Amino acid sequence: MIKPLLAALGLAVVSASALAAPEDIVKKSGCLACHQVDKKVVGPSYKEVAAKYKGKKADAQLFDKVRKGGGGVWGPIPMIPHTPQQISDADLKTVITWILAQ
Question: Where is the signal peptide (predicted)?
Fold first, then answer.
């Protein structure tokens, strides 16, 4: 009942994850176990990723990489696949946008 009323008023209902800060999402999703903003851990830093893909439309490519995992781009240690149960599509898109803006 509330959603139709809000829609009639021209207001959108926003999910809680859409309001989450990217930093909170990477903490909640376990990304920080292998990545940090400005230093290499197991995988590259987010700043290294941003620099590598600067000026390129890499959103879909990175989304695919996180979902499927894989190796060879950043060294011999492969990234494990991450399911929608680990990080939702919406949260993953938010995080990728944030990473590429580093």
Answer: 1-20
Measured CA to CA in angstroms, residue 71 lies from 9, 17, 55 at distances of 49, 29, 23
pTM listed for this prediction: 0.79
Residue 82 counted as an annotated binding residue = no
Under a CB-based contact definition with an 8 Å cutoff, are residues 102 and 47 in contact?
yes
Has 79 been labeled as part of a binding site?
yes
31 annotated to bind ligand: yes
Neighbours of 33 (CB within 10 A): 11
**Residue 20 pLDDT level (bands cut at 50, 70, 90):** confident
**Domain containing 96 — which CATH number?**
1.10.760.10
